[in-house]
Amino acid sequence: MPPSGSEPHPTADEPFPATATATVRPGAGPRVSPLLFGLFLEDINFACDGGLNANLVNNHSFEGVYLDRERSGARRIDRTRHWSVSEGVLTASGDGAVVPGRTFGRVESAGEARLSNPGYPGGRPGMAFRGPLRFTALVRGDGYRGALEVGLLDGDGEPLATAALAVEGTGWREVSAVLEPSAEAVGSLELWFAGEGVADLDEVRLVAEDHWGAGDPRWSQGLLRRDLVEALRDLHPRFLRFPGGCIVEGSGGGTHYKWKDTVGPLAERRAEASLWGERRADGDYSQSYQVGFYEYFLLCEDLGIEPLPVVWAGMSCQLRGGECVPLDGPELDAVVQDAVDLLDWATGDPATSAWAALRAQAGHPEPFALSHLGIGNENFGPGYLARFERIRAAVDAHRPGLSIVLSSGYLPEGASFEEAWAFARPDAGLVVDEHFYRSPRWVLENVHRYDGYPRGGATVFLGEYAAHPPHLLDQGVPEILTDLEVDPGAAGEPRPNTWASALAEAAFLTGVERNSDVVAMTSYAPLLELVEHEQWAHNLLDFSPLHVLPTANYLVQQAFAASLGERVAPVEGALPGGVHASATSDDGTAYVKLVNVGEQPRRLDLGVEGAGTGPARGSRIAAPPDAVNRLGFTGGPQVQVAPGPVEAAVEAGHLDLTLPPHSVTVLRVPLQA
Fold it and tell me: Is the full-model pTM beyond 0.70?
């Protein structure tokens, strides 16, 4: 049972004894799930293109595919979007393309032409210049006579670096140059043609030399931005769920995520519109797939975490129309085969599988680790369950023993949610994916959500969650998602990523830890946000072209994941009002989390059975509820929430603690050998 004082009180300030007493019992509880804290990565808020994707060039291959906001599930083709030309003519052509059926940019110069690209998200200079960058492109200059230069321009259009490019020979040839900017800046890329004729251009890349995986032959295709990967690593994740999210489902018309288009040489990957273009002017959000399944699996391997790929279930987003392939027929057969082929691509033998051979050609002949597979995202109802069964049966037959993730819809309760659980509960091979985006008050009131969940069958994957008012989601989101409680802020407009939201999440996570025998996995959502250009207002990690800023919510996730033992250590006794606690332990350490959501400090005499000598050390975050870490597209971070060190003496197995108001305290208590 939970400690008697742990009921949720958002402002629990009623009188309590001066010091409450509780005891931690290391080793007395069930095993902690080894995958309890992970990451969920979806290309929303420019998380991939414009974020993790190390290539700074927007629409690098002149394949621009965007969402047509006037027609549901339709695409708008704009091959030269985000490229501008002066004193010349730019068109898109497919005549003799690098890859048959694809397009490239064609520049016509009558003596001089300038071609420029601003980077992401477009419409303003957005490329980060802060060290050497490598420019590469495929150029065909059969009909061009003259010089070609590449340059980096700052936000005022002043050159920071230039290099000459050799345009010679016939046919497509790669040109390359290393550019070292003279100053740190956010700027744009420009190509200068000084000559006459027609030059063709494709696969344009501008990548920082210190990108993630530099020098590693496995990273032979898409490349990743180093500081963002390091920020993900520092969350101490155990798994990565990818690629979504709603982009798995798409909005109809074939816009669902097709993993086969995201592997293989970059020039052969097929771009797709993103449904998140629904929240961009003119649908301006394309998926270049330079970060695809190969890069996701490599990222997991580099971070030492489990991959959790999610495959399409044959149904588009049910809140956006819900197109689906027939239950009987070749369309669903193809969906099933795609899932089976993914298993071969990720884990098969290159000598016997063409898909595995494609993986080997990229630089990874060894199989990737794969123990989990998700089927569908936020799908629900009998139609989903029928398609799920078809896909799962084929997966089980081809690769027995995988843990399969079943969607329970987009709400944490209701008929469809209960239907999914009734379907899954007896099956220990299933993990049920629950999602919620609710107010901090709702999150606090549900700290004990998992206390009564049945044990022994399917387990929980809390695959998307956050404590924020639904007001923040109301633009372009179906009305059913906005008909929820909203906590008004001081000005009636709740802000994202306040310390109050993170504090509520911390309290909730104590309930997750206490129940980590039935809660197998959790991942916050969304993960990344290019500031000032988001489609979702409340995210875990903010970034700009030059900076990465952990939100208050990030700091809570980091604190919990970094201090996690192998077994639940029950916390027994009477906690102070407004204080929530959980603990885990391994052979040498008890990891204690204490969350005070109240407005007053609380005293706690905390006993730890088997505590050793020496102080308990850890970290503490305390801040006013409305504190926020802020970052603009330009300029540096403004930090109001940050962790600090904390130390507590251990005397005769007890710690005398004072918990500040609105605080999260994490302690590592040494145990006797």
Answer: yes
